[in-house]
Amino acid sequence: MFSRSLHAELAEAGQALSAAGLVTAFGHVSARTAAGTLLITPPQPLGSVTASDAGFTELAPDAAVLPDGVPREAWIHLALAASRPGIGAVCRAQPRAATAAAAAGLPLRPLHGQGALLGPQVPVFQDPRLVRDPARAEALAEAMGDGVALVMRGNGAVSVGETVGEAAARMWLLEESARLTLAASAAGTPVPLADADQQAWRATGSELLNRIWQYLISAVPRDTAERNRP
């Protein structure tokens, strides 16, 4: 069995993403276990997932078929984990501003310091169809490259991290960066931070991502958070 803490962390991330308005009826979060498998949330609204839910599923890294009761886009999690050993967690969500920016053809580049934690430019996966097969998932992983977030044109976004908290924090940052991009584009021509300034901000990455994660979980309603406790 997996430790309760991993179930609780995934449930907490789902509830935090929901409280932040980053997921609706759809979305899922996964984490790499100590054994190298993936633990993924059940196919239900993330805000309703608790640590004690029976729907968490273990996925073998070389799975050829998805078992019943698993999100059909779990191929995304498997492909990213296979292509990037350093990835410990994956978030799949539907951030509205990021989706709108991609539809408008606006590049998501760092317009503020925290935005630099997403890299020089967030890639866009141009295939708008649901990623429900290994080949499309592998194409998505290739499009992401060594990035930490990716917008799926017309289909939400994906973020990754060494930890569940980092992946969730980056999803929130992606949406914040997109909102700034939309606002700046309406007012004029967005000007990204200089490369040296971006690098300086990235040096604080772990510290700032942890602060954002703490902010996100602090917004989860108390009665909801209580359900994750042993």
Which terms would index this structure?
7-stranded mixed sheet, 230 residues, L-fuculose-1-phosphate Aldolase, single chain
What's the gyration radius in Å?
Answer: 17 Å
* Shape verdict: globular
Stretches where pLDDT is under 50 for at least 5 consecutive residues are none
Order of helices and strands: HEEEHEHEHEEHHHH
Indicate the topology.
Layout: H1 4-19, E1 28-32, E2 38-40, E3 57-59, H2 74-83, E4 89-93, H3 96-103, E5 124-125, H4 134-144, E6 149-152, E7 157-161, H5 164-187, H6 195-202, H7 205-218, H8 222-226
Parallel strand pairs: 5-6
Antiparallel strand pairs: 1-2, 1-4, 2-3, 4-7, 6-7
Helix pairs in contact: 1-5, 2-4, 3-5, 5-7
What's this, in brief?
This protein is of the alpha+beta class and 230 residues long. It is 42% helix and 12% strand.
Tell me what you see in this structure.
The structure is a single chain. This protein is an alpha+beta fold. It has one domain (4-222): L-fuculose-1-phosphate Aldolase (3-Layer(aba) Sandwich). 42% of the residues lie in helices and 12% in strands. A 7-stranded mixed beta sheet has the order 3-2-1-4-7-6-5, sandwiched between helices. A hairpin with a 4-residue loop joins strand 6 (149-152) and strand 7. The mean pLDDT is 94.
